[in-house]
């Protein structure tokens, strides 16, 4: 997703902005190897 797409998604999901941020944070942690990928299906 491009930054523009992410911003558009966040704008469309006003009520779920926190869930979006948490999801992106978890994805970042997985990509960084902070937590094993097997933890998240």
Describe it.
The chain is mainly alpha-helical and 41 residues long. The chain has one domain. 63% of the residues lie in helices and 0% in strands. It contains two helices and no strands. It has helices at 3-12, 17-32. The protein is elongated, with a radius of gyration of 12 Å. The two termini are 20 Å apart.
Task: Describe the SSE topology.
Blueprint lengths: L2 H10 L4 H16 L9
Q: What is the count of DSSP helices, taking H or I runs of 4+ residues?
A: 2
Low-pLDDT runs: none
Distance between the termini: 20 Å
User: What pattern of helices and strands is seen along the backbone?
Assistant: HH
User: Describe the biggest sheet?
Assistant: none
Class per helix and strand makeup? mainly alpha
**Overall number of strands:** 0
Level of helix content?
55-70%
Count of discrete domains: 1
The residue-averaged pLDDT reads 75
- The outline comes out as elongated
| Beta-strand content estimate | under 5%
Radius of gyration from the alpha-carbon trace, in angstroms:
12 Å
Keywords: Membrane, Transmembrane, Transmembrane helix
Transmembrane segments: 17-40
């Amino acid at each position: 997703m491009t930054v523009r797409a992410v911003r558009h998604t966040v704008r469309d999901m006003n009520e779920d902005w926190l869930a979006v941020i948490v999801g992106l944070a978890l994805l970042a942690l997985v990509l960084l190897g902070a937590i094993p990928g097997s933890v998240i299906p």
